[in-house]
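Hello,

Our lab assistant flagged a job as stuck in the queue for most of the afternoon. It eventually completed. Since we weren't sure the result was trustworthy after the delay, we are filing this so someone can double-check. Below is the sequence as submitted and the structure that was eventually returned. Let us know if re-running is recommended.
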Amino acid sequence: MTTTTTSDFQQFMKRRTEIALAYVNGDAGPLDDIATRREPAHFFGPNGGHADGVEAVGRDYRDGAAHFQAGGDSRVEVLQAQDSGDLAYWVGLQHAHVRVKGKPDPVLMDLRVTEIYRREEGGWKLVHRHADMLAEPQRKPAG
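-- returned structure --
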């Protein structure tokens, strides 16, 4: 892991891990607490598409969490993180076993994640999240 972070952002990232766990158990509240209330805001979710603007992003976060139920697990693997002044980011992987409503067995979700934060009102607020499914690298054509 490559990090150049202050202890403030390191502490925040510990909280971010707890927030990810709440989310995969169907609770979007903690994520909503760290989501920006100021424009711009963006979300590129694991099912494709994108949400632009505070209202649309918040709606996507809530809709996503509503698909999960209690009994999930999540682990965040930070590959790189940095904060400087009023901006911070982390990139890495989120490994989760989730309980999806209507499915009898847990579902494995490994996501590639990039998040960007802005300091607002004395705390870190999520302004951009890009999460997509981790896939095997595509083979390069011979030749």
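-- support follow-up --
The delay was a queue issue, not a problem with the job. The result is valid. The chain has three helices and seven strands. The first strand starts at residue 2 and ends at 4.
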